[in-house]
């Protein structure tokens, strides 16, 4: 599985924009141009999927504070709805038959799936609480839509705008720490034509009754329900051509009369299209639950550092805590360093020395801890409180990056089906203004570190080929240094994008993408972007 893009709609000044995800994304723009809205969407989604909530999104949490729904929704929007969309690649069954859980293998995916899943969030009138109003899945050129009430009950299911209704299944959107999770309640009914019972144990899908009704032309009225169930169980999810081939293949296990009818009807485009649509709907809860598990696990891997980090202290009081990662402000940095294993302490210190020019260690002094920096040139040791404000602002960024990339463990959400523990999930390192209080020379070293992270992940013993670094910056030095590194072949130009944020006259955000060419020169870059505004530029 892979996450290709994130689309946000009607959030603050961003009316709608699709953000393509690349290994390195630099976010630039004037103050209050919408950069933080995009950047902080990642920790927003993390706090939403790791916390049990009443609504789909936790607007105020441990990482970011967006306020309440009415503070977040775009003021220019006529419809008071907020939407998140995720473009995802799903593998075929042959790609994951042994590595994925049985629940997912039962989807029997016949061809590669590029799916776009959207969740639309709204709020009842005169209420600040939010609920999932609509979930939409675009797959195989079809659009499947679920409409829900405030209590989560799904009221309507539509395929390409046409409503379908099962006589046996009720769907609900699960509350809590999830975006797309669906629960399904099914009762036993009888087939319309023959009044034959349709037991839930044999027909587990959400719309199996509609599929059996549609496939009734393939069977005699007297055909045993177990025979129908056998063909139903083998149905796969795919595009039109793969469905046609697959249907004829699985019919080989049936009687000669069924084989003949399958061959005839699989050539009927209208009949086959309807069957494909119903199969997509039948497997909709499974697809959404797996997408929910994937998206949740992706955003649980977001590492976020705020623009204003904690001020360095001469001594930090020791706490008997197990600190696994640096918090967004870096306030727990001393405890993070203390909690590392001896081998990890050496690795982190060496990594900092190689990339920035100083080693790091945490020294216990009675009931307190001090952070010491050792200059690689002079070899002298200094307390971080004596090294200037810039170092205290940079060190939490370095620690967060190192931990995210060096950690072999993938966070998996309890209670959700997920990938194998050794599968690579996308990781996101989101940093705001890493250049704060740094001399341009040190800013240049940070840009070189970004190149190292993109190209030398093996030094960290990490599977980081699916790592995305999103960096909001006002540093002309970082922008120029990245271009220089591209011209030297140290970074691939196609791995980097620069997002330029600007406010339009109506106060809505305009977002453009600038790319480096192979010589490291920015294309579609506005003249005088970093210069003070003068009368000629207005």
Task: Summarize the helices and strands and which ones pair or pack.
Blueprint: E1 2-11, E2 14-20, E3 24-29, H1 35-39, H2 41-49, H3 69-72, E4 82-90, H4 93-96, H5 102-105, E5 113-122, E6 131-139, E7 142-148, E8 154-159, E9 162-164, E10 169-173, E11 182-186, E12 189-190, E13 197-198, H6 208-214, H7 225-233, H8 240-250, H9 256-266, H10 269-282, H11 284-300, E14 302-305, E15 316-317, H12 333-339, H13 342-355, E16 358-365, E17 368-375, E18 381-383, H14 389-406, E19 427-432, H15 440-455, E20 467-472, H16 476-487, E21 496-503, E22 509-514
Parallel strand pairs: 3-20, 3-21, 14-19, 19-20
Antiparallel strand pairs: 1-2, 1-4, 4-5, 5-6, 6-7, 7-8, 8-9, 10-11, 12-13, 15-17, 16-17, 17-18, 21-22
Helix pairs in contact: 2-11, 6-10, 8-9, 15-16
Essential attributes:
538 residues; 16 helices; elongated; alpha+beta; eight-stranded antiparallel beta sheet
Can you tell me about this structure?
It contains 16 helices and 22 strands. With 538 residues, the chain is an alpha+beta fold. Strand 5 (113-122) and strand 6 form a beta hairpin. The longest helix has 18 residues, at 389-406.
């Amino acid at each position: 599985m892979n996450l290709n893009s994130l689309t946000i709609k009607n959030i603050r000044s961003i009316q709608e924009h699709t953000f393509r995800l690349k290994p390195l994304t630099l976010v630039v723009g004037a103050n209050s141009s919408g950069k933080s809205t995009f950047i902080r969407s990642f920790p927003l989604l993390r706090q939403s999927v790791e916390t049990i909530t009443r609504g789909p999104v936790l607007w105020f949490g441990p990482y970011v504070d967006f306020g309440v729904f009415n503070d977040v929704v775009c003021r220019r929007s006529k419809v008071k709805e907020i939407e998140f969309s995720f473009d995802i690649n799903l593998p075929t069954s042959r790609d994951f038959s042994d590595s994925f859980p049985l629940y997912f293998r039962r989807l029997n995916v016949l061809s590669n799936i590029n799916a776009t899943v959207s969740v639309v969030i709204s709020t009842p009138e005169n209420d600040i609480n939010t609920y999932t109003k609509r979930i939409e899945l675009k797959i195989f050129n079809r659009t499947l839509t679920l409409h829900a009430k405030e209590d989560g009950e799904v009221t309507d299911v539509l395929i390409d705008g046409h409503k379908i209704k099962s006589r046996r299944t009720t769907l609900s959107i699960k509350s809590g720490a999830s975006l797309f999770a669906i629960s399904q309640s099914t009762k036993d009914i009888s087939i319309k034509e023959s009044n034959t019972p349709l037991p839930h144990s044999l027909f587990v899908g959400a719309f199996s009754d509609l599929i059996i009704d549609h496939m009734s032309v393939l069977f005699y009225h007297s055909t045993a329900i177990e025979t129908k169930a056998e063909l139903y169980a083998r149905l796969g999810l795919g595009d039109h051509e793969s469905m046609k081939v697959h249907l004829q293949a699985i019919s080989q296990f049936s009687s000669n009369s069924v084989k003949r009818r399958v061959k005839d009807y699989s050539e009927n485009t209208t009949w086959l299209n309807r069957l494909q649509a119903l199969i997509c709907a039948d497997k909709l809860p499974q697809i959404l639950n797996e997408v929910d598990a994937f998206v949740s696990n992706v955003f649980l891997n977001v590492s976020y550092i705020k623009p204003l980090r904690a001020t360095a202290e001469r001594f930090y009081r020791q706490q008997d805590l197990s600190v696994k990662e640096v918090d967004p402000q870096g306030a727990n940095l001393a405890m993070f360093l203390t909690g590392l294993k001896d081998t990890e302490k050496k690795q982190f210190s060496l990594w900092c020395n190689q990339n920035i020019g100083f080693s790091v260690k945490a020294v216990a002094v009675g009931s307190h801890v001090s952070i010491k920096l050792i200059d690689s040139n002079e070899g002298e040791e200094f307390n971080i409180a004596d090294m200037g404000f810039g170092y205290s602002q940079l060190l939490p960024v370095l620690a967060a990056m190192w931990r995210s990339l060096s950690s072999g463990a993938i966070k998996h959400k309890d209670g959700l089906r997920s990938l194998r523990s050794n599968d690579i999930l996308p990781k996101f390192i989101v940093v705001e203004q890493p250049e704060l209080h740094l001399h341009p020379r040190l800013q240049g070293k940070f840009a070189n570190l970004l190149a190292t992270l993109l190209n030398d992940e093996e030094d960290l013993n990490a599977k980081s080929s699916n790592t995305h670094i999103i960096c909001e910056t006002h540093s002309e030095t970082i922008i120029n240094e990245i271009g220089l590194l591209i011209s030297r072949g140290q970074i691939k130009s196609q791995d980097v994008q620069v997002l330029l944020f600007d406010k339009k006259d109506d106060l809505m955000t305009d977002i453009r993408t600038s790319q480096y060419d192979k010589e490291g020169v920015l294309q579609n870059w506005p003249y005088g972007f970093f210069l003070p505004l003068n009368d000629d530029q207005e």
